[in-house]
Amino acid sequence: MNDNSAVLMLHGLPAAWDTVTAALVSPSTPPPVTDESVSEALTLLCKKGLGQYVEGWLLETLQVSLASHVAPEFWAGLQQPEVETQERARAVALLEAFRTLLRRLQPFLCGLERLGTWQDEGRAGLLGPGAHGLRERAFSIIRAILLFSPPPVLQQRVLEFYSRTFSVYMSQMEEQIEADDVAAESNGNDTCTGCAAAQQVCWCQDALEQLQEFSHILSRLQLLERVSSEAVTNILHRLIEQRMEQRCRGEYERSFLSDFNEWLEQVLGWLSRVFASEVGEAGSNTLPTDGMLDYIGSTILQRWRCHMQQFFCRIYVNMRIEELFSIIRDFPESTPAVEDLKFCLERTNQRQQLLTSLKSAFETRLLHPGVHTSDIITVYISAIKALRELDPSMVILQVACQPIRKYLRTREDTVRQIVASLTGDTEGCSELASELSRADPVTLETQDSEDEGSDPEEWTPDPTDALTVDKTGSKRRSSDIISLLVSIFGSKEIFIDEYKTVLADRLLHQLNYNTAREIRNVELLKLRFGESHMHYCEVMLKDVADSRRINTNIHEEEARLPEEEQPSVPLSAMILSSEFWPQLKEEKLELPAAISKSMETYTHRFEKLKAMRTLSWKPHLGSVTLDVELEDRTLTNLSVSPIHAAIILHFQEKGTWALEELSGVLGVPQELLRRKLALWQQHGVLQEESPGRYSVLEKASSRERPDRGIMLIDSDEEGDSNTTTQSEQREEKLQLFWAYIQAMLTNLESMTLERIHSMLRMFVATGPGVTEMDVNELQAFLQKKVRDHQLIVSAGVYRLPKTTQ
Amino acid sequence: MKVKIKQWHGVASWLWVANDENCGICRAPFNGCCPDCKVPGDDCPLVWGQCSHCFHMHCILKWLNSQQVQQQCPMCRQEWKFKEGETT
């Protein structure tokens, strides 16, 4: 002991310094100097106040050596030109580069360890951050110098290496799973699925071993997170995307959540290998207990699991958002996709994206003139169904479908289509009909009342993207399809009116007094719209039943008459309560005498049956079944309209008619008559022998072929409907206001459109028409009056023309 | 050519043979029904007074019931008497 100190004293400080530094940077075993002598030297240094510099010196040495030798060597090793070509060689080079790196840094690390231990023990009064702190500092130096600006080659290599090991791992996992299936083995392919090399030179096993070592080195150098995270993130992203693209795109009828969860667990297995040594390292260094070790490992993996779930959800949502239009179109077959999307959407913040995308999808794919109204309605219905699954708060539905509703409002036939599908008339959308007959319907009366009896505990606030401008925001949003459709127009009257028209048309067309289906529909609609609104329809149906009774009555009476008094024309009638039916089209038509006479007789009998009441016939309405017997042929059971029947009856009396002559007899304008004649020309009964002259074709053989029938098709569109159209009715309603408008303008001289509108609303608020009249409609009406010179407009102000005042 | 009509389905609307369109009491059309009724025609008939004014039966009955002293036609203030044989 004394000797030693004597030696030290002899050599003095430089020797002590050398001893200590040598002990720190070349810890080659066996140590060149004994522990004691190092201690002595250290004590000496400390005594002279040099102890604190040891740490500085060591870190400096590390930095210098790293910058001058180690880092360049590492990069050179990574970029060896001869390994560029082969993947396997690249993997080896990568590993080798890191091995060398570790080897070069090992002495410093051990030295640091030692110094740290001294500091921890407080040997010779040495102060410092201790083993842990020193290690941190050293590693930050390594990271700083080595990875300050790493060339992209490192990430490339790491990415490639990880991708490879990943595919190796996954293929092994699959083999394990498939091992049960014996047949699965021989796929005749001689390349390994894992490493994509030929079976003979498969390096799967190597790759996995390399992976292990690689991870180990990285974690020793505390570079694992730095080097791997980006690559792993990248790979996971790409793979999830790839897998989703392959499996899920366009496939809506299957749920992929559990599938993907399983798969993600497998991926996690691979991740656990990548980060396994991190786990081990952390355990052996600081946390020796096994329980804690597992805990650390699982926190890292747990973090990655969360990451992956997040990736998955985001990617899935992105894809489904893109496809949402198709998903909606395919609903309810696409229910699984919607459910998946719902799950994922709750975990990502992409509602806004979804809304924007869906809205624009609707606008580009649906809301243009090329799409039939009924198709738009069908998609809207699907959207309602799908989106109420997706978002029970209905906010998405409400916001995304706003454009559809707006657009439907501009289509003229929307109401008619909706009503038609409500009553199950159209083939395409039967949903509405079944929706209507659904048990427990939502009455339109009560749907917007505040106290729905729902538990206040279950109340959830609206999502932040709810429409704040919407006044009904506070109310419960309805998800009922029919209410939603009806509310497009803001009032149900318009639907009821339309239904009345449809019902009237139907009843006037079939004329067989069979109303079972209509009665059912009216009853169902009553549940929805309330009894009072369907009152008119009930009277209409009752009229049909009454008509049948009256007919039977009259026919029985006729049957009792003697032969010669029997009516020549079997006539039955549909007797309407005019106040309760929609306005019927007025058309003039003079029926042949025989028919008029029958009608008169019928009227007399009716008058006898119902005192003080009479009938007013609508000669142009109804239908006629007749046979036409010609010389060489007979057309039987033709069902035609009264005007057609009247025409052919006239030809019975006289074989040839001039158009104007016939028009005079029938009291029908020539143009209309010409169109009606076309039907008989098509049947080959009449021909136009010279322009404006029609005659009977008694013999089919004399008919010219090919005939011009194609041109002559009875293109009488409004012939389909016996009732005035919606717009005509509106027109009439507005016409009512004309008197008011005139009066106002006489008193106030000039008024703006808005003024007129608000005045009308104020004074004429009782009529049913006012609520439906919007400014645009009024403007159109006033414009028409301006065109007719009944009104003058200048600078947005309307006034009456001077002459009328 | 011979045309044989097998069946002619006509359409007609019924109306009261009255000298006015609206009931003088409820102002609703005769061909409709009084405010208390739902169905026109048989269920809400018209009645004529000897003064030749007519009303919905329900309307005039209600009116007559509300008159304590003398029963008068609300239109012409003559004593109200039902015209025989023309009520339904």
TrEMBL record, chain A:
The keyword rRNA-binding does not apply. Residues 436-472, 701-728 are annotated as: Disordered. SUPFAM superfamilies: Cullin homology domain (SSF75632), Winged helix' DNA-binding domain (SSF46785). Coiled coil: none annotated. The keyword Cell division applies. Pfam families: ANAPC2, Cullin_AB, TPR_ANAPC2. Residues 447-460 have a biased composition (Acidic residues). Pathway: Protein modification; protein ubiquitination. One of its GO terms (molecular function) is ubiquitin protein ligase binding. Residues 482-681 form the Cullin family profile domain. One of its GO terms (biological process) is protein K11-linked ubiquitination. Keywords: Cell cycle, Cell division, Differentiation, Mitosis, Neurogenesis, Phosphoprotein, Ubl conjugation pathway. It comes from the Eukaryota. GO terms for cellular component: anaphase-promoting complex. InterPro entries: ANAPC2, ANAPC2_C, Cullin-like_AB, Cullin_homology, Cullin_homology_sf, TPR_ANAPC2, WH-like_DNA-bd_sf, WH_DNA-bd_sf. The mammalian APC/C is composed at least of 14 distinct subunits ANAPC1, ANAPC2, CDC27/APC3, ANAPC4, ANAPC5, CDC16/APC6, ANAPC7, CDC23/APC8, ANAPC10, ANAPC11, CDC26/APC12, ANAPC13, ANAPC15 and ANAPC16 that assemble into a complex of at least 19 chains with a combined molecular mass of around 1.2 MDa; APC/C interacts with FZR1 and FBXO5. In the context of the APC/C complex, directly interacts with UBE2C and UBE2S. Interacts (via cullin domain) with ANAPC11 and with UBCH10. Interacts with NEUROD2. Interacts with FBXO43; the interaction is direct. Together with the RING-H2 protein ANAPC11, constitutes the catalytic component of the anaphase promoting complex/cyclosome (APC/C), a cell cycle-regulated E3 ubiquitin ligase that controls progression through mitosis and the G1 phase of the cell cycle. The APC/C complex acts by mediating ubiquitination and subsequent degradation of target proteins: it mainly mediates the formation of 'Lys-11'-linked polyubiquitin chains and, to a lower extent, the formation of 'Lys-48'- and 'Lys-63'-linked polyubiquitin chains. Belongs to the cullin family. PANTHER family: ANAPHASE-PROMOTING COMPLEX SUBUNIT 2. This is Anaphase-promoting complex subunit 2. It comes from Ictalurus punctatus (Channel catfish).
Automatic annotation (TrEMBL), chain B:
Residues 34-77 form the RING-type domain. Keywords: Cell cycle, Cell division, Metal-binding, Mitosis, Nucleus, Ubl conjugation pathway, Zinc, Zinc-finger. GO terms for molecular function: cullin family protein binding; ubiquitin protein ligase activity; zinc ion binding. The keyword Nucleus applies. Pathway: Protein modification; protein ubiquitination. SUPFAM superfamilies: RING/U-box (SSF57850). The keyword Ribosomal protein does not apply. It is found in: Nucleus. One of its GO terms (cellular component) is anaphase-promoting complex. GO terms for biological process: anaphase-promoting complex-dependent catabolic process; cell division. Its main location: nucleus. Together with the cullin protein ANAPC2, constitutes the catalytic component of the anaphase promoting complex/cyclosome (APC/C), a cell cycle-regulated E3 ubiquitin ligase that controls progression through mitosis and the G1 phase of the cell cycle. The APC/C complex acts by mediating ubiquitination and subsequent degradation of target proteins: it mainly mediates the formation of 'Lys-11'-linked polyubiquitin chains and, to a lower extent, the formation of 'Lys-48'- and 'Lys-63'-linked polyubiquitin chains. Belongs to the RING-box family. The mammalian APC/C is composed at least of 14 distinct subunits ANAPC1, ANAPC2, CDC27/APC3, ANAPC4, ANAPC5, CDC16/APC6, ANAPC7, CDC23/APC8, ANAPC10, ANAPC11, CDC26/APC12, ANAPC13, ANAPC15 and ANAPC16 that assemble into a complex of at least 19 chains with a combined molecular mass of around 1.2 MDa; APC/C interacts with FZR1 and FBXO5. Interacts with the cullin domain of ANAPC2. Interacts with UBE2D2. This is Anaphase-promoting complex subunit 11. It comes from Pangasianodon hypophthalmus (Striped catfish).
